[in-house]
Design brief:
The complex is a heterodimer of chains A (415) and B (379).
Chain A: H1 9-18, H2 33-38, H3 41-45, H4 49-52, H5 58-80, H6 82-98, H7 124-127, H8 134-159, H9 174-178, H10 185-206, H11 210-234, H12 254-267, H13 286-300, H14 308-326, H15 332-354, H16 373-380, H17 395-400, H18 408-414
Helix pairs in contact in A: 8-11, 8-12, 10-13, 10-14, 11-13, 13-14, 13-15
Chain B: H1 2-12, H2 47-73, H3 94-119, H4 134-138, H5 145-166, H6 170-194, H7 214-227, H8 246-260, H9 266-288, H10 294-316, H11 318-321, H12 334-341, H13 371-378
Chain lengths: 415, 379
């Protein structure tokens, strides 16, 4: 396209038709390039232009401005490509006189160049309402680990204080009165627990916002175990059944005690792995906490389509809890208290996380008086809205699959 | 095009200080639909149309102005009538308070019955000695401590009662208190029943067991209820009601209610502090008297504060009630909550009123209130 100031009247008329401004062609029969550029609003107020224009020529003037800009850019670009400069203009000149416009296709055959506009990228927390922030998830994970370690140490300490079975017989419990002990029941409970944890782990891997959800899980689990430390420590309940075989007490032997703690952490505190030989950790039941919490998380973050999946997990969880009692491994009060505290903490946390109004301190928000409100704010302040249940393969699997859609035109232009 | 023309003209008219008319005056049909068949109407027309345009727009201009004048005559300010103003925001509904009272009373009686039942199952001190407790290891028993607890408890209950009498919305607040108390005693019943803890200390003298003697048991129940369950009145002779501590529940609950429904300004802060001290000292004295295990007190405090905050957050945040992402209503008592709090639309403000109706001129409202708005609303 040649420069506007070199245009003739017929060029101008072609351009007007191009732009859909045919109504001006009659009035602009004598207007050439320079005259076009000299047009201003005053010209449209006088006749004959005031008769043909509906909006005082504003639309036309804007188009002229755009035209000017593009032609400047063209000139600039052509000046930069010195070797091609003349050839291009020559081509443009050559094709201008021959071509006629049809349906808005530019007659010179050149596409307008894309302009790169550099926008500084806002930080992640402004770009998306669900920023990943893996650092915070790491902090939550460390917190959970710390709480697990503390619990194990406390169990080891409490073990020393459990009264022997002969001195302090098992306390009267209503469930134990109704149901006799079933020996293999506790293994069922632990298998169910391991299944649920495995299922939850796989589900977590498939979630898109796994950093946020992982953070929540670690924080809640850590807090529940911390509460458990407290209730275990202050009062020691006797063993629930005479079948218990508690390890011998090691008074003051720190080395042996720390070895015991390591063994318990390594085995995850399960009887199946043989790491749970310590007594005294009854109020409240850690097995119930894990069974309930994994079920709550599974249900919360699973797709609604697979309605049978949370139901299966519910059955696993309920059977597991029932088996704890059947095996006379915990008092009923332990299980009930664990269930109550777990559900309350889970619902409390998630209600606060889902309502923007509850994330701020105010007189109407009594939830802000809870002791973990500041850690909660730290974890959830940048999460704006309810975390959707979106699924995405983890990073390693993503690079393998070839299901990416390619937008070929854009991609090729960028290169 | 016609609409935009009218808009421009309206903005130019400054006689009435930029008063904008949002009416559908602009929908008048244009008499000249340009029959040129082109994409842009009203453009490629000869000058004859322009003259008609001018007369048309002047007519519409006169019409709009006349309409505006008519509106202006009747309005100095704009009254916006919200749809809710006719419905009272905080209705009293004393009958609901009555139901909550019956619920609390029912639970209290049931708890007493449960204590009597559990008493029969408490293992004997010689068979099952007191459990190891960290607090008991550090602090030896002090006999007079439990009386302090009970005296503090009675003072707090009396203070709360007086404060409650002076509240304006005492029906609503009373309802909440009775409901929560009933719930806490219900939970207590369950925890007491399922597992029976042995006596915390060898000093405790439990009344002898009445195996199967129903009449004796009923007499015990009545005695306990009439004495309010307090040792001071001599009605608390039965053992077994250890997990969790009812005394802690009362101390904590009354304090929470006192704090919630009184102003937060400076002189009242001292009042809150005094009540907090009473409550705290009372709870510590329970442990010092070796009347309850530490875990009983901890669990009681946790459950009481949890329930209080939960209930009040649900009540104060209207938008939580209808929201599908509100996990608070997954508790089993959310239906009862909806029943009690359905018509309470706003957080209960802290306003006081004499129990007997006196003219409101006679007292000064100590709470911070927007008196002009308040008085206008009350009229």
């Amino acid at each position: 396209m040649k420069e506007v100031r070199l245009w003739t009247a017929s060029d101008v008329s072609d351009w007007l038709t191009d732009e859909g401004l045919q109504e001006y062609t009659d009035a602009f029969q004598d207007v050439d390039g320079p005259a076009l550029l000299r047009l201003s609003e005053e010209d449209f107020k006088a006749s004959p232009l005031s008769l043909v224009t509906g909006d005082s020529g504003r639309h036309l003037l804007e188009r002229i401005k755009t035209l000017l800009l593009t032609s400047h850019m063209k000139a600039h670009k052509n000046n930069n490509n010195n070797e091609n400069g003349h050839t291009v203009i020559a081509l443009a000149n050559g094709s201008v006189s021959n071509g006629k416009i049809h349906n808005g296709i530019p007659k010179n055959g050149l596409h307008p160049e894309p302009v790169r506009i550099l926008i500084p990228q806002p930080p992640e927390q402004e770009r998306t309402p669900y920023p990943t922030e893996w650092f915070k998830t790491g902090v939550a994970f460390l917190y959970a680990l710390f709480c697990f370690l503390t619990t194990t140490v406390v169990i080891s300490v409490v073990h020393e204080r459990v009264p022997p079975k002969e001195e302090s017989p098992p306390l009267p419990d209503k469930f134990f009165d109704l149901f006799d002990r079933v020996e293999w029941a506790f293994s069922i409970c632990e298998i169910n627990g391991m299944l649920l944890v495995g299922l939850w782990f796989m589900q977590w891997l498939l979630l898109k916002h796994r950093s946020i959800i992982g953070r929540r899980f670690f924080f809640i689990v850590g807090t529940l175990y911390l509460y458990r430390c407290m209730t275990m420590y202050v009062t020691t309940l006797p063993v629930p059944g005479m079948h218990f075989k508690c390890s011998p007490k090691i008074f003051g032997d720190w080395e042996a005690q720390s070895r015991r703690v390591m063994k318990m952490m390594a085995g995850g505190g399960l009887s199946i792995t043989g790491s749970h030989s310590l007594c005294g950790d009854y109020l409240y039941s850690g097995h119930t906490v894990m069974l309930t919490l994994t079920y709550l998380f599974i249900k919360e973050y699973s797709p609604r389509r697979f309605w049978w999946y949370p139901w299966i997990c519910w059955c696993l969880s309920a059977v597991g809890i029932f088996c704890i009692l059947l095996a006379h491994d915990h008092y009923t009060i332990d299980v009930l208290l664990a269930y109550f505290i777990t559900t309350r903490l889970f619902w409390w946390y998630h209600t606060m996380a889902n309502q923007q109004a509850l994330k701020e301190i105010s007189t109407g928000n009594l939830f802000s008086r809870v002791w973990w409100f500041y850690p909660f704010q730290y974890f959830e302040s940048n999460v704006r809205g309810i975390v959707p249940r979106n699924y995405q393969l983890p990073f390693l699997f993503r690079t393998v699959t070839c299901t990416r859609v390619k937008y070929s035109k854009l991609d090729s232009r960028e290169s | 095009m016609a609409a935009s023309y009218l808009l421009d003209e309206r903005e130019d008219d400054g006689t009435n200080g930029g008063y904008h008319v949002m009416v559908t005056v602009e929908e008048r049909p244009r008499p000249h639909a340009t029959p040129t068949g082109q994409s842009r109407p009203s453009m490629a027309t000869p000058s004859g149309d322009q003259v008609d345009n001018k007369s048309d727009t002047s007519k519409s201009r006169r019409f709009v102005r006349g309409f505006r004048k008519a509106l202006r005559k009747n309005q100095d300010y704009t009254r916006i009538i919200g749809s809710k103003s006719s419905v009272p925001q905080l209705p009293s509904e004393w009958w609901k308070t009555g139901i909550a009272f019956i619920w609390a009373g029912f639970n209290l009686v049931l708890t007493t019955v449960m204590i009597t039942i559990v008493h029969e199952r408490v293992p004997d001190k010689s068979v099952s000695p007191p459990l190891p407790d960290k607090f008991f290891d550090y602090v030896p028993r002090m006999e007079w401590a439990f009386s302090i607890t009970e005296v503090n408890g009675m003072i707090l209950v009396a203070l709360w009662f007086i404060q409650w009498l002076c509240l304006k919305h005492r029906a609503i607040v009373g309802r909440r208190f009775f409901f929560l108390q009933g719930m806490l005693y219900l939970y207590r019943m369950v925890t007491m029943y399922i597992t029976t803890l042995p006596v915390p200390s060898m000093h405790m003298d439990c009344a002898p067991k009445l195996y199967g003697d129903s009449q004796g048991k009923i007499k015990r129940v009545l005695q306990l209820v009439s004495g309010g369950g307090l040792s001071i009145t001599g009605s608390h002779l039965m053992c077994g009601d250890f997990l969790y501590s009812g005394h802690t529940v009362m101390l904590t609950l009354t304090f929470l209610f006192i704090q919630e429904y009184s102003p937060r300004s400076w002189p009242w802060c001292c009042y809150h502090l005094i009540c907090w001290l009473l409550s705290f000292v009372g709870v510590v004295c329970i442990l010092m008297a070796h009347e309850h295990y530490s875990v009983d007190v901890v669990v009681a405090y946790f459950i009481t504060s949890n329930l209080f905050y939960w209930y009040h957050t649900m009540a104060n945040n209207q938008d939580l009630r209808g929201s599908p992402h509100n996990y608070l209503n997954r508790t089993w008592w959310s239906l009862a909550f909806n029943f009690l709090e359905k018509n309470v639309k706003t957080p209960v403000p802290c306003t006081f009123a004499w129990p007997l109706s006196l003219p409101s001129v006679c007292f000064k409202n100590p709470c911070e209130s927007y008196s002009i708005v308040q008085s206008a609303r009350d009229e």
